[in-house]
């Protein structure tokens, strides 16, 4: 090899050889510098600067104009892997095209989010595909393969799955520990990550902020297992700021050098911390090297994985990289795809025949989202927009459209003066969330407009007040600009939309005297009237009391508009930057009271009222379901959302979206948002014992389908093939989503009511009949995690296969018998027993056995009592003594074991080290033999790692 072309520049060599050669040419400081998100250039070797991380959840985000597709939960509602694959391809092409124009656009995309939508109050519900692991995995595989491309050598982009693992709440998200038992981890959480990695689309993982079983996810020993799912080197990128949390908010390790060293050893390759400033990360890793916490091999392992990704992205072979040539941005094909995706995301929840709308109808389009196309934190900046009002106004079948948003028109009074918005001298601009900056969180809001003032009644400005619920008000000036507060503290009418990482456009009314204080939610301070105008108060400064005078009642305006039209279409839901988003979980499933009042008023004025819910998450609307003739739901559907909704309402498109998660009827149906144990919490469609408002997989059509003749056969070893006939027996063309479920007929341990094993979306003309074939591996479809033997297994016995239109609408059924030997009892004499491998549990949580690996069990909250049950323990000829390895950090700790009706208790001596396990002997009054169950009770601040029998 010549000096002009070193081996790392030779595309004929393997990636492994090229990486090894390049690593050998880099100094240790240069290799350490590669580990920060913003890796500097190495000019002497011709290496460019490189940044991990480009958000692309449903379009290219934060980097300027791009095609905006439906939110991920909306793509999930399509149940269409082929569609999602095409969306991924389009987004990948736009990443490439936008990078050609702006090198800040990164090719390492942090998408998709595959966390399961286990709990509908999760603030980030909009980011996931579904509550089901198989549906999520299938769509994530399709999206990542589209993003990555199908070239055997090079990647279109390098997708990273978020967020590893069991991440489903925002409250205390960086300090709370999620307790996840082995069955939930293996059967529910991990499959959503495993399939996209095995399929080769995803090339990386991002650990989540939370701890799992007491250990930060950035130190997860399970990362090694995930690496085994990927044929190529798996890239692990930290979440933003998370490396500092290990020794910071989490206090898990004593200092930052130790925290970053532990993360590097656990498998984190790229550290996202301190924005573009790599200095602190490099200094901490360098200190860790000097202290012997890590060595050069640890650095090289991570740097090698980063470089391997860069090689696969074509950075070193620009003449061979095929993807720049196919880059495309805002094409007609992408715009058409955005429309098709938005159409397929619409779910018809209820319809008594009112829909589709009759040609020539007059329509009142009502509600706070009627003339909106809302974006979320991970949206790009759309180059095209269509609200529901736009879509219906432009539709030729609609005769006349009227509009009311339901906002109250108000004036604000402070003492004897009234609030006034000065005349603007500059146009409104987009909110920080869509301003095209590399880091929208850094944008402080506009300061070039004059602040609001107070004056006489004649100068008062009438503001549109929208109540989003939960104490969240937005106020808009007559020209549509929202009241906002920049970092200088002045209140201005300056924002096009609420948005940004810090939402500066929300005010909370707090009763005070005969009026209210207006507390600016972002700063937590009340608004005061100063000599120069309105501003937020300094800490400790009292706020000004405001009185709200209603000039026009939005509810009455909605009722009047509804009464004057043939049909009222009420568009309700959420603003994705308000009341449920990243950092903020929702408090309730119910609609905001102000929105409840709108649909009730519209329906009272016009029984022909359609409720269209446009939201990032489910709502509990049982009364609306009982009263209204038609309900629909769609996620925020991107740039073509309004057109798509209009085409469904008018019948141009027969709706075929299906719910990707359960819609519960009441808040009381939900477990605590921190309870991830689906089995004991009885949550998601898998275990929920109640009656949902709308079940997982639900969705109606304008036509009717039959599903008949289900058969299942093992046509090749280890896999089943299911076939059934689907017929469109209605008078319209439409899509049916065939959902195949399985259930265990007589399970030995708790299994779900049924679980999804395959699905497909089928387009059928009126009268058309088609044979649908579905395939899946038997062990994947029917297996479960056997905690007694620490393995994946398919238990022998009878299984029921069910095909239907939802998880509760089963159309045909057949049985399948799996032969084989039962797993047998637990071999506790030979292998002992891990405390975490329980079959039943009450009052316990899983914690870290040691900082590096393993799980232990403790009473929830570090005290109280916990009970664990282990079935089928084989005690052989007899056991008289149990040795419990336990650690206690306080007095009053004890363990009690009951075997075959024989019980023993022992105290656990208190210590100061939660990892200082000591053997505690429990001597049974008499030996117990044979196969029996074990009940273990823990009391006090104690944790148990394992048990031995003798």
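^ Assign residues to that structure.
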């Amino acid at each position: 090899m010549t000096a002009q072309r070193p081996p790392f520049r030779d595309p004929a060599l393997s990636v492994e050889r090229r990486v090894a050669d390049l690593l050998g040419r880099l100094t240790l400081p240069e290799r350490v510098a590669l580990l920060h998100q913003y890796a500097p250039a190495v000019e002497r070797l011709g290496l460019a600067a490189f940044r991990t991380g480009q958000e692309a959840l449903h379009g290219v985000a934060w980097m300027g104009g791009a095609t905006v597709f439906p939110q991920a939960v909306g793509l999930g509602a399509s149940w269409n892997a082929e569609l999602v694959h095409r969306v991924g391809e389009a987004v990948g092409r736009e990443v490439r095209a936008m990078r050609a124009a702006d090198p800040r656009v990164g090719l390492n995309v942090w998408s998709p989010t595959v966390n399961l939508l286990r709990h509908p109050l999760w603030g980030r519900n909009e980011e996931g595909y579904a509550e089901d692991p198989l549906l999520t995995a299938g769509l994530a595989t399709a999206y990542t393969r589209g993003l990555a491309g199908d070239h055997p050598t090079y990647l279109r982009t390098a997708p990273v799955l978020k967020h590893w693992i069991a991440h489903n709440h925002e409250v205390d998200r960086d300090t709370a520990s999620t307790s996840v038992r082995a069955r939930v981890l293996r059967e529910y959480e991990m499959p959503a990550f495993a399939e996209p990695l095995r399929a080769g689309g995803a090339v990386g993982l991002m650990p989540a902020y939370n701890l799992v079983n007491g250990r930060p996810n950035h130190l997860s020993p399970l990362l090694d297992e995930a690496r085994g799912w990927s044929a190529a080197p798996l890239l692990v990128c930290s979440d933003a700021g998370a490396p500092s949390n290990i020794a910071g908010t989490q206090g898990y390790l004593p200092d930052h050098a130790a925290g970053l060293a532990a993360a590097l050893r656990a498998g984190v390759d790229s550290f996202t911390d301190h924005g573009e400033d790599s200095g602190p990360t490099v200094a901490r890793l360098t200190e860790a090297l000097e202290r012997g916490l890590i060595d050069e091999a640890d650095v090289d392992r991570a740097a090698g994985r980063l470089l391997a990704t860069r090689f696969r992205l074509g950075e070193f072979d620009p003449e061979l990289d095929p993807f720049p040539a196919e880059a495309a941005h805002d094409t007609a094909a992408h715009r058409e795809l955005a429309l098709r995706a938005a159409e397929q995301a619409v779910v018809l929840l209820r319809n008594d025949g009112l829909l589709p709308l009759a040609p020539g109808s007059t329509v009142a389009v009502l509600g706070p989202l009627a003339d909106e196309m809302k974006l979320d934190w991970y949206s790009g900046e759309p180059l095209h927009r269509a609200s529901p009002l736009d879509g219906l106004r432009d539709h030729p079948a609609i005769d006349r459209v009227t509009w009311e948003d339901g906002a109250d028109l108000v004036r604000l009074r402070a003492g004897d003066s009234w609030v006034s918005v000065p005349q603007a001298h500059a146009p409104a601009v987009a909110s920080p969330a869509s301003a095209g900056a590399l880091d929208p969180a850094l944008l402080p809001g506009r300061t070039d407009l004059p602040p609001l003032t107070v004056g006489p009644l004649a100068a008062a400005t009438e503001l549109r007040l929208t109540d989003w619920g939960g104490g969240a008000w937005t106020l808009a000036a007559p020209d549509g600009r929202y009241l906002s507060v920049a970092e200088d503290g002045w209140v201005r009418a300056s924002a096009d939309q609420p948005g940004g990482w810090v939402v500066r456009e929300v005010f909370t009314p707090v009763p005070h005297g005969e009026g209210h204080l207006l507390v600016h939610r972002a700063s937590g301070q009340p608004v005061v009237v100063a000599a120069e105008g309105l501003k937020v108060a300094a800490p400790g400064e009292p706020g000004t009391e405001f009185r709200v005078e209603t000039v026009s009642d939005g509810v009455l305006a909605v009722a009047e508009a509804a009464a004057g039209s043939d049909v009222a279409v009420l568009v309700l839901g959420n603003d994705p930057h308000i009341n449920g988003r990243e950092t903020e979980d929702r408090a309730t499933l119910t609609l905001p009271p102000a929105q409840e009042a709108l649909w009730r008023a519209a329906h009272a004025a016009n029984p022909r009222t359609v409720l269209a819910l446009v939201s990032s998450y489910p709502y509990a609307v049982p009364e609306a379901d009982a009263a209204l003739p038609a309900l629909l739901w769609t996620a925020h559907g991107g740039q073509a959302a309004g057109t798509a909704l209009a085409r469904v309402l008018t019948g141009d498109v027969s709706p075929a979206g299906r719910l990707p998660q359960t819609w519960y009827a009441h808040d009381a149906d939900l477990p605590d948002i921190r309870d991830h144990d689906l089995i004991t919490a009885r949550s998601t469609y898998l275990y929920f014992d109640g009656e949902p408002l709308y079940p997982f997989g639900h969705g109606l059509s304008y036509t009717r389908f039959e599903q008949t003749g289900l058969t299942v056969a093992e046509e090749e070893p280890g896999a089943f093939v299911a076939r059934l006939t689907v017929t469109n027996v209605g008078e319209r063309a439409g899509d049916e989503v065939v959902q195949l479920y399985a259930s265990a007929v007589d399970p030995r341990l708790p299994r779900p009511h049924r679980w999804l094993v395959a699905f497909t979306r089928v387009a059928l003309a009126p009268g058309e009949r088609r044979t649908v074939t579905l395939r899946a591996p038997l062990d994947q479809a029917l297996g479960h995690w056997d905690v007694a033997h620490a393995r994946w297994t398919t238990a022998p016995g009878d299984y029921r296969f069910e095909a239907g239109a939802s998880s509760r609408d089963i159309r045909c059924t057949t049985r399948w018998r799996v032969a084989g030997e039962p797993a047998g009892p637990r071999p506790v004499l030979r292998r002992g027993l891990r405390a975490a491998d329980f079959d039943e549990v009450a009052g316990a949580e899983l914690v870290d056995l040691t900082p590096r690996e393993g799980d232990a069990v403790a009473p929830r909250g570090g005290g109280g009592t916990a009970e664990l049950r282990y079935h089928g323990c084989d005690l052989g000829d007899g056991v008289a003594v149990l040795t419990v390895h336990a650690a206690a950090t306080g007095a009053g700790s004890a363990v009690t074991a009951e075997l075959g009706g024989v019980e023993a208790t022992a105290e656990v001596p208190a210590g100061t080290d939660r990892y200082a396990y000591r053997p505690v002997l429990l001597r049974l009054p008499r030996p117990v033999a044979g196969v029996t169950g074990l009940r273990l009770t823990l009391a006090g601040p104690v944790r148990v790692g394992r048990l031995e029998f003798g």
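The chain has five domains: 14-326, 341-377+386-406+554-670, 416-544, 705-818, 828-949.
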